[in-house]
Design a protein that fits this description.
The protein is an all-alpha fold and about 400 residues long. It has helices spanning about 5-25, 40-50, 60-70, 85-90, 100-120, 130-135, 140-145, 150-165, 170-175, 190-200, 205-225, 230-240, 250-255, 260-280, 285-300, 315-325, 330-355, 360-380. Helix content is about 65%, strand content about 0%.
């Protein structure tokens, strides 16, 4: 029996994708209530205001748009907590009705997560079902999809950076980092430390890519809404003045009545990390730097929500990569996988209890302990089994 030629397979795949795209665009799908639109509502409303030159930091303006155009009827106003580069990403969606835009954003998120799973996994490792199952089975992924979050774009940005960096496509690697600015608190340690390490290595093309993407974004924002810097600063000051039970050390301090230390601890950690990296003369492994800084950032961030822990997928998938490549012995590998599965199950169960976000402080800490244990175990396996890492 003759097999289908590669060219025919590609044509068939493209045809199927085009048919699927046509169905998505033309068929009037409707999402179930509170699926993909909860947090997307303020993001969409903020972008709508920015596009029309209005004050996206004004709660009254936000309330007006949310009630008039998104069907919001609860007695409070939702505010969009993200950097205006996120508004640029969402700009095309404001030309659609809110219900339609919510559906397309959900599809966008799913596609983005699928791409992330494929890109972050080594091409030499054929077990591609592992990153797909891990990403789409992770509790923080599912809640992010339900809420219509934009943290998925930050995840994609980091993974695109890693992909282009490995391929030595430096300018594209740097440009990809613009996506991490959408929710800066998710990369509160990662982005500054990564830029510093790239500066130490004199990777000017990567830095040029990031600066170029940032400047283009700033120019577009000024063209759309000349007063955006003042409005964004007003939004930040309003947000930082709000006391929240965050799923971080800050949230634990707030829970115990200490509203001062938690919001400033990250500054001490960031300054200490920058000084340590600056005076460390050897090159630091980029992937490990990203993994560790993401974990630590999610532990000490002064703001955040539990679903932002979707960023833990990057270090978790690195652990699973080591396991599948035989860099960790079987007994320890089974223990780590079991711990990850149980932890994910517990976080699912916690979600059903509707507890405050502060009680989700533990996943980054647990991931950090597992990551450290995995690194220790890797060095106990013969060197010949270890995969080649970035210098």
């Amino acid at each position: 029996m003759r097999t289908m030629p590669k060219r025919s397979k590609k044509i068939l795949l493209i045809a199927l994708l085009l048919v699927l795209l046509f169905l998505i665009v033309r068929v009037p799908f409707e999402l179930p209530p509170e699926s993909g639109d909860i947090d997307f509502r303020p993001y969409w409303s903020s972008t709508y205001l920015l596009r029309n030159g209005q004050d996206f930091s004004n709660p009254e303006k936000m309330d007006e748009i949310e009630r008039a155009l998104t069907g919001w009827d609860l007695p409070f106003t939702m505010i969009a907590w993200f950097f205006p580069t996120g508004n640029l990403i969402l700009l095309p969606y404001t030309y659609l009705t809110f219900s339609r835009a919510s559906f397309y954003w959900l599809i966008t998120n799913i596609i983005g997560l699928f791409i992330s799973a494929i890109l972050i996994w080594p091409k030499t490792n054929k077990k591609v079902w592992i990153p797909l199952l891990t990403i789409f089975g992770f509790s923080m992924t599912l809640i992010s999809l339900k809420y219509g979050q934009v943290n998925t774009m930050v995840l994609l940005g980091v993974i695109l950076f890693l992909t282009f960096y490995k391929k030595k496509q430096d300018f594209l690697a740097g440009s990809s980092l613009i996506l991490t600015t959408i929710k800066p608190h998710l990369v509160i340690l990662t982005l500054p430390l990564l830029i510093l390490e790239l500066f130490k290595r004199k990777n000017w093309r990567i830095l040029a890519g990031f600066v170029s993407a940032f400047l283009v974004s700033v120019i577009l924002l000024f063209l759309l809404n000349p007063e955006w810097p003042a409005r964004f600063l007003h939004l930040v000051s309003y947000g930082m003045a709000t006391v929240r039970l965050t799923p971080t050390i800050n949230g634990l301090f707030v829970f115990t009545g200490n509203y001062f230390l938690g919001k400033r601890l990250w500054i001490i950690i960031l300054v200490g990390s920058i000084l340590s990296l600056w005076f460390y003369r050897n090159k630091v492994d980029i992937r490990n730097l990203i993994d560790i800084s993401l974990i630590c950032g999610l532990i000490i961030s002064p703001i955040g929500w539990s679903y932002d822990q979707i960023m833990l997928l990057i270090p978790i998938l690195h652990i699973l990569e080591w396991i599948t490549e035989g860099n960790i012995n079987k007994f320890n590998a089974i223990i780590m996988v079991c711990v990850l599965l149980v932890a994910n199950g517990i976080s699912f169960y916690q979600r059903t209890l509707l507890v405050d976000d502060v009680w989700f402080f533990w996943p980054p800490i647990l991931t950090g302990l597992l990551y450290g244990y995995a690194c220790f175990q890797r060095h106990r396996v013969p060197i010949k089994q270890n995969s080649k890492e970035d210098a």
